[in-house]
Design a protein that fits this description.
This protein is an alpha+beta fold and 333 residues long. It has one domain: Ribonuclease Z/Hydroxyacylglutathione hydrolase-like (Metallo-beta-lactamase, Chain A, 4-Layer Sandwich), CATH 3.60.15. Helix content is 31%, strand content 23%. It has eleven helices and 16 strands. Helix 6 packs across helix 11 and helix 7 packs antiparallel against helix 8. The chain is globular, with a radius of gyration of 19 Å. The chain starts with a strand and ends in a 7-residue tail after the last helix.
Length: 333
């Protein structure tokens, strides 16, 4: 049995300046911005395209809420961060030991640790980008003795570099490291299970797999993303719950609808995601099975997806899809 409990996110400041945007592709309150604009004049800033890709995207929510997924084997709190990131507090219910995934806003993490009364021992870093690893240094200063795991020497405050299939323990939970290079060369996903549990496992996918999408190929190739999505993450049990690094679901599903306009799973998921967005609720987690039903990057073997990009082979389809998505103009509706 899984239950999800929601509460308003704490109003702590981000550790980095948070850019503000207005975009039709996301559920941003126009009223909120018009009110703010009366208080201070906007500062115009110019970034090159690669820098813009690394900045937080527009927030989907007027107020983003945290939520807790409770299972008998583990408890996971989704902690919204920056404009659209997620941090995840992973709690072993037996030992009350916990790990935090990508703690970019350490103060929020500490508040959650205190609220749950758990012992935080571990930082799981998916990749080195500042919006995922940028809080590590402050995190270890505030809580000395934390073990910081990651797959890249560029990860801040790294204490243990991991590779594919390495395992570690958080209480009675087993964390298996899955090497998924492409978005970055050292990207790691974390697959969390508990022995003899009948509850679904969890996988924390950072910027490799999103709900209905995948990360940009900043440091990799279509072949690598195919292996990451289809041969690594796609081979996990279908019921595995997917906890991704960003709330990009609505815009991802609009692209998926563009690729497969007759896919009922996409249309239903998009309507549900919009409703979640309107309430400030997360659209995470999904499942591996879900992703195979509506994520075009997980459906590169499907004829309907291949036909859309005029390809007949899965890896070429992956390459063409990513190229199209990179320049896709998200519709308002």
């Amino acid at each position: 049995m899984v239950s999800i409990i929601s509460s308003h996110a704490d109003d702590f400041p981000a550790p980095f300046p948070e850019p503000r945007y207005i975009s039709s592709s996301h559920c941003v309150s126009q009223k909120k911005f018009s009110s703010a604009s009366k208080q201070s004049a906007p500062v115009k800033m110019t970034f090159d395209s690669k820098t813009m890709d690394l900045l937080p995207k527009p927030s989907h929510f007027l107020v983003r809420k945290s939520s807790v997924v409770e299972q008998s084997n583990m408890k996971i709190e989704l902690l919204p961060a920056l404009s659209d990131n997620y941090m995840y507090l992973v709690i072993d219910v037996d030992s009350k030991e916990a790990a935090i995934v990508d703690p970019v806003e350490p103060i929020k993490v500490i508040e959650a640790v205190r609220k749950h009364g758990v012992r935080l021992t571990t930082v799981l870093t998916t990749h080195h980008h500042w919006d995922h690893a940028g809080g590590n240094e402050k995190m270890v200063r505030l809580m000395p003795g934390l073990k910081v795991y990651g797959g890249d020497d560029r990860v801040d405050a790294l204490t243990k570099k991991v590779t594919h299939s390495n395992t570690l323990k958080v209480g009675s939970l087993t964390v298996k490291c899955l090497f998924t290079p492409c978005h970055t060369t050292g990207h790691i996903c974390y697959y969390v299970t508990k022995e003899n549990s009948t509850e679904p496992p969890a996988v924390f996918t950072g910027d490799t797999l999103f709900v209905a999408g995948c990360g940009k190929f900043f440091e990799g190739t279509a072949e690598q993303m195919y292996k990451a999505l289809i041969e690594t993450l796609g081979k996990l049990p279908p019921e595995t719950r997917v906890y991704c690094g960003h709330e990009y679901t609505v815009s991802n599903l609009k692209f998926a609808r563009h690729v497969e306009p007759d896919n009922e799973d996409i249309l239903k998921k998009l309507e549900w995601a919009k409703e979640q967005c309107d309430k400030g609720e997360p659209t995470v987690p999904s499942t591996v099975a879900d992703e195979f039903s509506y994520n075009p990057f997980m459906r590169v073997k499907e004829k309907s997806v291949q036909d859309h990009v005029k390809q007949t082979e899965a890896i070429n389809t992956m390459r063409s899809l990513r190229k199209e998505k990179d320049s896709f103009k998200v519709p308002k509706l």
